[in-house]
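Reader question, answered in our methods column.
A reader sent in the components of a multi-part assembly and asked whether the whole thing could be modeled at once rather than chain by chain. We filled in our standard form and ran it. Here is what they sent:
COMPLEX SIZE: two components
ENTRIES:
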Amino acid sequence: MCTGTTRAAALRAARLHNTRIHYWNEPRIQTGPRRTPGRVPASLSTAFAAVAVSMAGVLGGAMPSANAAATDQITIGLVTKTEVNPYFVKLRQAATAEAEKQGAKLIARFGKFDGDNEGQVAAVEDLISAGVKGILITPNNSTGMLGIIKKAREKGVLVIALDTATDPADAVDATLATDNFEAGLLQGQYARKALGSKAPKLAMLDGSPGGTVDVQRHDGFLKGFGLKEGDPAIVGKQNTHGAQDEGQTAMENLLTAHPDINVVYTINEPAAEGAYAAIKARGKLKDIVLTSIDGGRLGVQYVKDGKIAATVMQFPKIMATRGVDYVVDYVKSGKKPSGFINTGASLITDKPFSDLKSKDTKWGLENCWGLVAPTGNADKRVALVN
Amino acid sequence: MSVASAAKPNRAIGRLVTTPTFGPLIVLVAFCAVFSLATRTFWAAGNLSLVVQQSVIVGTLAIGQTMIILTAGIDLANGGIAVLGTIIAGRLVAQEQNPALSLLFALVLCTCFGLTAGMLVSRLMLPPFIVTLGLLGIITAITRLVAQGGAFPVTDDLLSWTGNAFAIGDTSITYGMIIMFCLYLLVWYLLTQTGWGRHVYAIGNNREAARLVGIPVQARLLSVYTFAGLLYGIGAWLALGRIPNADPNALQNANLDSITAVVIGGTSLFGGRGSLWGTLIGTLIVAVLRNGLTLTGIDPLWQDLVTGILVISAVALDQMSRRRQR
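And here is the structure of the entire assembly that came back:
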């Protein structure tokens, strides 16, 4: 055996050098015939196994609804992009609540990061195995899920895209989403008006390169603002992945490079919050129109506090509840929804322009999605969160 | 070894219990049993083959990871290398290059990145953690530069061939699964039945001792990292088969997922101890948890929680057994 030859070689080497190799006698290298490297004491190994078995037992005990498939209850699958974004948490909560109301059961899954196609494909596969009647999905990538969606539809599962369309859009039965181009357009129109007669120096804090929604919002903003891609008035573009820290870093760097920036596009409100911090640190709050998009609770609060001039709200709750309703309806009547169903977008600002339709932050806080459940004293709670 | 196998049955049981893959195997069986009892859908040929299909990418990346961890190294760049492979192949084919040559080029490129890591670790004696962390950054940047912010849908038959399936009974077996199992068999053979493999273990156990007994440590390390790079290239091909879409944002957690699989499978993070089959079992444990918890309708956050407990338990076990041997 090879360990034997290694050992012989070691002994030869030791004799040759006339030294005693001290490591060789340490028990770490187990070259004897009985104990091969990697062997572990029996008691420990069984202890590990015992821990695992008891854990499995606990999990087994925690499965009150495990046999839902055995009843006639309608099961619906929901696959969101990630669980780190409160937007998708709201989507899930709304879907769960609606499913309960309808007497159906919702099984939720999500990707681990933006771009986790593999996780989402595995989720859809698992949901098909679980026997769901319909799957609501927010695809991480418009083309990443086409194969598995086709498979699901072939098995008679109703597939509805929520929030993000697939490419091609008719890969799913229907799409329930914000028209993100239109939302970007509203943001751009507002930014243009708020800037007044000044010549624009535009900084764009984008999301992720190539993301469907990211591109639509970006293009919509430029259309609404009245600029073409590549116009010298666009002084800088950075990817923030929709994260506050990256938004702040990007804005800091852009302001260093172009201190004359006077209007800022942000892909979402966390990025806008980061940009706000950078702008404030430079003492340029008065010179810059900061706009955003999404309509999260904190985002609306930022508008109310005057950190952001305006944001555009979208309505994940409507996507989730209508999605669940469509699946229940499909099971009961066989009717399938089809095409693109726009769930709407509203401009939220406290500094409105008469020729641009908008809602104020009071309405915004009552109708937004976000971290805190909407209750009577929502404002107080948000103050605590902040 | 022949001495032990010829001994009494209770000795045989003792051997079984002390085999490093025993604990993970029990865990896998336990979870399978629970999910089979809790749902009617888990223990079905179709679903079980699905679980294996879902393990193919991480399972293959974890082979390279196992070899590297056995040498007391670690590889944070494996997912990044694989994603670059998918992007290169996807983009070349999108530009109407020959698919076979494109795939070959991607494989060679992945191997070269493995070689680079191996050179830095073996010749410059840099810590593998730092080398692969730096490489991950470099490779991610190259990936984004090559992709130009876009994803490449793959329609070519060769690139997505590993996702083609045939059925035995109700199962759905993809060629990717077969490739993964063949790779496990091959690397298992190399690690346990050849001098090269024993050298890998010896280097991980004690690099200095290995050098003193005349093992060519540098050459072996270089070969391990290079071979791992090739395996990541094959992983890229399997990824294209599973999801025919080369996406620069994909597989961001694959490095940690593969380390998780290796550690749950009983291989020591400090090198020199462990088994390749344990890694396969570790990969399957994670996939079974994810699948089973979905079928039962439990919040998938529990999957991460249980996986975390398993990782810590596995490392604690490894540490305790090391202390006992001193």
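What stands out: Chain B has one domain: 21-319. Confidence is low (pLDDT under 50) at residues 1-7 of chain B.
Send us your own complexes using the same form.
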